[in-house]
């Protein structure tokens, strides 16, 4: 719930779950029925300071344990010298004599790796991760060679690392040059620039001990359970932001593997004694208390969702029952005078009324017997005229409001999408997929910063039908020309408001079109590596954009369905799997087999396998022959590398064959279940027992 972008969704889910349970209880009468309607919530946290308030909100019992199965020691390293938490004990490490390693990272890592222990190195940026992995792969290899014992153990994993390299080559995006070098030395980087397949392979290899060191960004600490004997935090910054107590504890908490280590270590690398003091202060820093994320704007979405789902039906229920289910209700009360039946705080009540007013003005809800009207204040806020809503006034969601809720879009985002769709319906370019893909490209793609010179060059080579799409959505050649020349001033022509806001809007539109062009290339089965080079983006960010666009496409389709634009919904329904798999229509059935991406699907098509059933019945040698055509084996590769490549191909073919057979079996089971259900309905309707497996 502390997470900036998704925490409020968890809070909203809990609010809706508890309201739903309240409604279920109101409909139950006997004790047994009440027990069946009870809602059980289990929450766990290792970092929340005000967890008692959270327990009060949920009506939960609080259990606290300070036990840590594996003890954790905290230290600070300054130029090779490790200062323990009490600053009274110093542990000398080998002095950093290498100009490439002024902070002494290599000795700290190699000390653990030489004892067959794992290490996580947290870096401030993605670029730092890759450079740290390259440094460790170069320098640590030579240090290990000096000790024959560890070097022998190190060499024993070489065959597995060779196979890992071949498996990385088999992924849709191909092998990253940095990983090609570092993985063979037992080191890899881990950040958002990796594709899903790459992350999965590297994480599995790290857990098995094939990789001994991962250089990662802070996202790994928050989302992936990869413990280590030693955690090294290489900087007191995360990106451009200072390292805070929450992220520090998430990183440090990865140190010490239960069942493997007797203790865990976390070492923070500082540039100076002053920074070392800051690190020691961070060890004892208090965490920021959990606060409700349902402020004014997000409260609007919360109100719309509970109304659309039928959990709230009147204004009085909003201002009394719904308000008392919010975390804000507990948060805004004085601890000394806290009670669950207290009067709703005036600030919360005002925000709820403003939310109702805003939703009615946007035609997302209807309020019967409400107020006279709505006006806009000088500050731009919507205000109700004619007094507050009547308590008994009924509230219901409009078709557009239902569309916003079922699409899972934010209200302001959904209204923008709705306006785009209204414009597109008057002039939708269907000569190609570009216009539809642009409409399915999320607004968050505006964070994908293009190389404007490259963008201009790409735009000038567009075909006429692509230019028609760019003109329809508002892309300007003049704007691209100015951007490529570094012009960042006011746009030409009259402006109704702040020119900076207008420039940001136009810039976001052009960024979105740039992302749509990249998605169009991926949907046409272009190699992710080639698209990454053409658009100067990482393969991982492109894959993330592809997945986000496929999800967004489904959200837009839901919105179209709810406002009865079924023709538009059908178009997005066809586009969604193409965006998800990055494949043409004829390859989509094969892409549903686990382990089959668009390149593998195309290879299977070329050997005559066009259906999942055909793959399931084919010999494994036929699948292997198709996959071998995708191998990227170097001409000078040795026997060990060739053997690893053939083994990787065989394992991939076996997974594909098994996945196809499972898919066919699941389809047969589904058809059998549907047949039995149809027979049961027929028998119930006609009062006949029938025979199992038949309709008569």
TrEMBL record:
InterPro entries: Hel308_SKI2-like, Helicase_C-like, HTH_61, P-loop_NTPase, POLQ-like_helical. GO terms for molecular function: 3'-5' DNA helicase activity; ATP binding; hydrolase activity. Pfam families: Helicase_C (PF00271), HTH_61 (PF20470), POLQ_helical (PF21099). It catalyses: ATP + H2O = ADP + phosphate + H(+). Residues 104-307 form the Helicase C-terminal domain. The keyword Mitochondrion does not apply. This is POLQ protein.
């Amino acid at each position: 719930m502390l997470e900036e972008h998704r925490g409020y969704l968890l809070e909203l889910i809990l609010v809706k779950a508890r309201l739903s349970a309240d409604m279920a209880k109101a409909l139950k009468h006997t004790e047994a029925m009440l027990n069946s309607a009870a809602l059980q919530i289990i929450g766990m946290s290792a970092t929340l300071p005000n967890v008692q308030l959270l327990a009060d909100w949920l009506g939960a019992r609080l259990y606290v344990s300070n036990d840590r199965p594996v003890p954790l020691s905290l230290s600070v390293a300054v130029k090779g010298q490790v200062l323990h938490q009490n600053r009274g004990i110093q542990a000398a490490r080998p002095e950093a004599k290498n100009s490439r390693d002024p902070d002494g990272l290599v000795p700290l890592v190699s000390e653990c790796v030489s004892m067959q222990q794992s290490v996580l190195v947290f870096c401030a940026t993605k670029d730092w991760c890759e450079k740290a992995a390259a440094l460790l792969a170069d320098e640590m290899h030579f240090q290990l060679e000096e000790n024959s014992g560890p070097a022998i153990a190190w060499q024993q994993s070489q065959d597995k690392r060779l196979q890992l390299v071949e498996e990385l080559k088999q992924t849709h995006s191909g092998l990253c040059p940095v990983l090609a070098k570092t993985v063979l030395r037992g080191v890899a980087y881990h950040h958002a620039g990796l594709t899903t397949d790459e992350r999965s392979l590297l994480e599995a290899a790290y857990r098995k001990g094939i990789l001994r060191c991962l250089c990662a960004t802070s996202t790994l600490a928050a989302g992936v359970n990869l413990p280590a004997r030693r955690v090294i935090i290489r900087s007191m910054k995360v990106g451009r932001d200072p390292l805070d107590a929450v992220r520090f504890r998430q990183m440090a908490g990865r140190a010490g593997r239960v069942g493997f280590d007797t203790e865990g270590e976390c070492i923070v690398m500082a540039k100076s004694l002053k920074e070392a003091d800051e690190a020691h202060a961070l060890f004892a820093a208090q965490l920021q208390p959990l606060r409700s994320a349902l402020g004014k704007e997000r409260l609007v979405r919360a109100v719309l969702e509970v109304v659309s789902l039928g959990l709230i039906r009147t204004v009085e229920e909003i201002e009394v029952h719904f308000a008392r289910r919010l975390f804000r209700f507990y948060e805004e009360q004085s601890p000394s005078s806290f009670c669950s039946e207290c009067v709703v705080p005036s600030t919360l009540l005002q925000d709820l009324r403003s939310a109702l007013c805003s939703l009615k003005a946007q035609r997302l809800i209807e309020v019967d017997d409400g107020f006279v009207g709505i006006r806009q204040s000088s500050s731009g806020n919507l205000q109700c005229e004619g007094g507050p809503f009547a308590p008994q006034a009924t509230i219901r969601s409009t078709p557009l409001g239902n569309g916003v809720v079922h699409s899972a879009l934010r209200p302001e985002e959904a209204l923008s999408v709705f306006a785009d769709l209204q414009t597109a319906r008057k002039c939708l370019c269907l000569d190609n997929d570009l216009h539809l893909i642009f409409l399915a490209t999320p607004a968050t793609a505006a964070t994908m910063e293009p190389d404007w010179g490259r963008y201009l060059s790409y735009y000038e080579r567009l075909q006429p039908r692509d230019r028609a799409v760019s003109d329809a959505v508002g892309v300007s050649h003049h704007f691209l020309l100015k951007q490529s020349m570094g012009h960042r001033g006011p746009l030409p022509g009259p402006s109704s408001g702040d020119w900076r806001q207008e420039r940001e809007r136009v810039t976001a539109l052009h960024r979105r079109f740039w992302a749509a062009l990249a998605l169009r290339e991926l949907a046409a089965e272009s190699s992710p590596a080639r698209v990454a080079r053409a658009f100067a983006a990482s393969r991982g960010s492109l894959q993330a954009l592809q997945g986000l666009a496929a999800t967004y496409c489904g959200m837009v389709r839901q919105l179209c369905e709810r406002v009865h634009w079924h023709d538009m919904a059908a178009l997005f329904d066809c586009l969604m799997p193409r965006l998800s798999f990055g494949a043409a229509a004829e390859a989509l059935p094969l892409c549903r087999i686990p382990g089959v991406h668009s390149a593998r699907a195309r290879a299977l098509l070329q050997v005559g396998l066009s259906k999942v059933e055909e793959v399931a019945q084919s010999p494994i040698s036929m699948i292997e022959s198709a996959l071998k055509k995708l191998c990227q084996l170097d001409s000078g590769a040795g026997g060990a590398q060739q053997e690893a490549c053939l083994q990787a191909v065989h394992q991939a073919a076996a997974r594909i064959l098994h996945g196809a057979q499972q898919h066919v079996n699941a389809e047969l089971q589904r058809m059998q279940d549907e047949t039995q259900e149809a027979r049961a309905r027929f028998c119930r309707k006609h009062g006949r027992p029938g025979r199992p497996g038949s309709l008569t």
